[in-house]
Amino acid sequence: MTDLQSLPKPTVSVVIPAYNRAGSIGRAVASVGGKPDGSYELIVVDDGSTDDTVTRAREAVEIHHGTAGRVVVQENGGPGAARNRGAAEASGDYLAFLDSDDFWLPGTLQTCLDALREGEAPALVFLQTVDIAEGQPVDEAGGQTEQIRTAGFLEAVRTVPSTRYGSCNVIVRRDVFERLGGFTRDVTCSEDTDLFMRAADAGPCLVLSGAPLVAHVQGEGERLTGSFPAVLRGFEFMLDQDRAGYYPDPKTSGALKDRMLAQCAVHTALGAFAAGRVGTAYRLYLQNLPRMVRSGYWRWLLRLPLVPALALLRPASYRMRWKKAG
User: Fold this and answer.
1) Residue 213: closest CA among 174, 172, 177, 163
2) Based on the structure, what is the number of domains in the chain?
3) Beta bridge partners of 97
């Protein structure tokens, strides 16, 4: 038996928050793969589930990770609180977050370990994702992983705009996470973007692009990002954070902070149109119009107010509920 006290501190701690995910938590835990050699640890945080998530998680951890994994149980506090609890329990230099309904593809752990041991220590790392439907097989023939390093988060969004920047595919350097206080518990949507914006001047950002590393499962289950009120609260929280001065604007980034917030405004306005909240959509557009102009975000400057017409012409591309407005 391996003497845990003789093992080095893990390079990465993989944190999986879970709430009522009995059907998928085993897959997520198994997907991390790896040998309990001290290079990694896995922590599942059950956020007050009322189904068999805890039992399934413990079974999967024992089978696939042994002493390198464990399950922590807490009262329901939301995704930010669950991730923060996992981070508090972790001992690795880096914190990798994986959603309990998603999963890593074969070789992802080793790819991450290799990348983290090369070059300047990044503050944030984002893994290439592939969107799949529940039960859909993944085509893993995606070529080689390319390492793209930028000065920071905002520069990464500009340089690699096709990458997903979310909590489901991020690795955060532990000291950065602790200095920023982790994820906010004030909102249940956009808590990840808020963290990344606060970390904009924390150091280099690394994007592992090319070959997919994370399967992002788009199912019919309950997703906070599908709740427009939660999306709106999250975006308005970010605007409050920016007004309070919590989002640094590195001198090298130009108008990148404004551009990022403009993108979030467009996403929220599109969600408002899709939810039938037409008045809210136009309010968001008008309030954020100066930001869109300042940042040169021309793509949606003219297109966004035309969404009702575009929804009639291309309903598959522009979702809109016509039953109510406001």
Assistant:
1) 163
2) 2
3) 15
Q: How far apart are CA 324 and CA 318, in angstroms?
A: 17
Contact 29, 65 (CB under 8 A): yes
Helix (H) or strand (E) holding 72: strand 69-74
Q: Clarify whether residues 199 and 277 are in a common domain.
A: no
With a CB cutoff of 8 Å and minimum separation 6, the contacts of 44 are 16, 18, 25, 29, 57, 61, 69, 70, 71, 72, 86, 100
DSSP per-residue letters across 88-115: HH--SSEEEE--TT-EEPTTHHHHHHHH
Tens of pLDDT, residue by residue over 126-179, are: 999 999 988 888 876 667 899 999 999 999 999 999 999 999 999 999 999 999
H-helix or E-strand containing 74?
Answer: strand 69-74
Distance CA 210, CA 138 (A): 15
On whether residue 230 sits in a domain, the answer given is: no
Domain ranges, residue 300? 255-313
Per-residue buried b or exposed e for 313-324, using 16+ beta carbons within 10 Å of the residue's own CB: eeeeebebeeee
Reported as a single tens digit per residue, the pLDDT across 253-286 is 568 999 999 999 999 999 999 999 999 999 999 9
Handedness of CA 92, 95, 96, 100 (dihedral sign): positive
Interatomic CA distance for residues 170 and 152, integer angstroms: 14
| Tokens found for residue 274 | 């899709």
Query: For 40, phi and psi rounded to 5 degrees?
Result: -150, 165
Question: Which 3 state secondary structure label does DSSP give 193?
Answer: helix
- Do 8 and 66 lie in a common domain? yes
Q: Quick check: helix, strand or coil at residue 312? A: helix
pTM for this one? 0.91
> Does residue 33 lie in a domain region?
yes
Tell me the C-alpha distance between 130 and 120, whole Å. 27
Q: Which of 193, 218, 243 is the last residue of a domain?
A: 218
Residues 94 and 205 in one domain: yes
Contact 197, 241 (CB under 8 A): yes
